[in-house]
Amino acid sequence: NLPDTVGYAMPDEFGKLVAYVKANTPGMEKAMLSVHCHDDLGLAVANTMAAAAAGADQLECTINGLGERAGNASLEEIVMGIATRKAYLGMECHVDTTQIYATSRLVSKVTGVKVQPNKAVVGENAFAHEAGIHQHGILANRMTYEIMTPESVGFLSNRMVLGKHSGKHAFEERLKSLGFGIADLDVEALFARFKVLADKKKTVSDRDIEALVVGSAKTVPDTWTLDRWVVNSGSSLSSTCTIRLAGKNGESREEVAVGDGPIDAAFTAIDKIIRKDLELDSWEMGAVTEGEDAQGEATVKISYDGVQWNGRGLSTDVIEASILAYIAAINSMEWELSAVSPSARKRAGNVDGV
User: Fold this and answer.
1) How far apart are CA 213 and CA 180, in angstroms?
2) What 8-state DSSP symbol labels residue 283?
3) If pLDDT is split at 50, 70 and 90, which confidence band does 283 have?
4) Which ranges in the chain belong to alpha helices (H)?
5) Would you state the pLDDT for residue 160?
6) How far is CA 150 from CA 80, 87, 124, 313, 346, in A?
7) 148 closest CA partner among 94, 100, 105, 205
8) Which of 148, 205, 211, 322 shows a CA-CA span of 20 to 30 A to 286?
9) What CATH number belongs to 224-348?
């Protein structure tokens, strides 16, 4: 492996280094040379492509360029760079590029790290054209301003919306067109959630459906689930929240708490229920789609005993989305703590039988 660990190299320099190692290392023909580039100067992809052109056999990269500090070389940019400039580079890779967008969104949802809108290949603006001359060129000939098609990386040019009158067949077809395997999903449960959402929103977009699928993909079992919640808040009174959670053994617990706003009150009440004093490291709220009836997507990061967990919640109500995200992070924490040694569970103050 030939790494540029601190992202210091220039593309021409790194390419020459790879070529030198390939040409002057005894027995190199029996080995595979891999490269690992960091993005501290914004050159991780450029250096990786230069290494590939110089004869590197393996290119190490990550989805959305995630990694330490400024990140690593972005998989989607490398793959599409090779795909669009195959003739020039004289190489190809066999990644299914139509799964790139869905994979990028899945990684973003799971990690809680958002993709910037102007991110190459997978950003929301990657195929958006605002300037009039650009729009005219696209309408006349898409290749004028698009070196690759949105469909080639999994974007759908036809953003069909569904509503409360849409049937299960249309919903299944939409899941397929978004790149989800029907055999891997609980379609009945997803369709039920879709109908509930459709009753709250006038239209349900592709991004709403993607959020539903990602939100249903449980990676850990639920130690706690939300039963009900009530908040009282205003400019002339303290914010209070009453929450009842159901434990995995069927036991329910209810607490009330006062906080600096309804969300803080809700989180404090949950801490009292689970009997742990958690540290809220970050809380973010965004809209899945546009409009006043958009779903709110909350992302939280909590820490306990020096370890951090992420959680994500989705609802048309921002307070409920925040509560669900907090509970999701707690469920990840509880599952991980229950999987380690009994002494670690005792140190964490885990309540048995919950």
Assistant:
1) 9
2) E
3) very high
4) 11-24, 44-53, 75-84, 86-89, 100-111, 132-140, 168-177, 187-200, 206-216, 262-274, 318-339, 342-348
5) 52
6) 12, 21, 11, 28, 51
7) 100
8) 148
9) 3.30.160.270
Distance CA 89, CA 66 (A): 25
Residue 73 CA from chain centroid, whole number = 17
| pTM reported for the whole predicted model | 0.62
Cβ burial 274-285 (10 Å sphere, 16+ → b, else e): bebebebeebeb
Q: Residues 25-50: what's their mean pLDDT? A: 96
pLDDT, one tens digit per residue, over 244-253 is: 999 998 899 9
User: Is the Cβ–Cβ distance between 309 and 299 less than 8 Å?
Assistant: no
Note the pLDDT tens digit of each residue in 74-112.
Answer: 999 999 999 999 999 999 899 999 999 889 988 887 887
Q: For residue 185, give the nearest of 206, 213, 221, 215 by alpha carbon.
A: 213
Length in residues, the chain: 354
